[in-house]
Amino acid sequence: MQCGEFLSSIEDRLSDHLERAAAVRAKLTPDQLNWSPEPAKWSIAQIFEHLILTNTPYVPAIKNGVEAAEKRSGEIKHTFFGKFLIKNAGPKGNAPAPKQLHPRPGPYGMDVIDKWAAQTQSLLDLAKGSRGVDLCSFRIQNPLLKMFKMNLADCFLILTEHTERHIQQIEVLQNRCAADMPSTANR
Is the pTM of the predicted complex or chain greater than 0.85? Predict the structure, then answer.
């Protein structure tokens, strides 16, 4: 797969994540946003906060990498470490979150979703601005596990797969929440 095709896929998936999150937000009350099925489980708000915490060190690292990478088209080749993270952070993965990526207890306001959406839009804009960049020509230090290096394609796909995992989780939780604590008023 060439960089352009890869970026088109990333852009489509990030746009889909934004649309799905907006659909969830439109149906939530503040109580539902902060509802958890059991004490050890995260609420919808906490999942969005976890995504924000995860994305925060990646976005500037990707931006700096895109600026430094070679300006030419190239084939996508993920690193060994990148493949490992992609698999474990994605929908079929079950990697536990490091403590620094755990959200605070809350409660949260609807702005947590807005903050995540703005951050995801920044990532989408970075993907759009990466046209003509060889995403595999430049390696960056993993912002969370500094002993490992990976390429920009790894970073884009890790965040996209991780977001897909949690958007699916949010959609399931929203349906469960709506059934367990129906609301007569939206917001």
Answer: yes
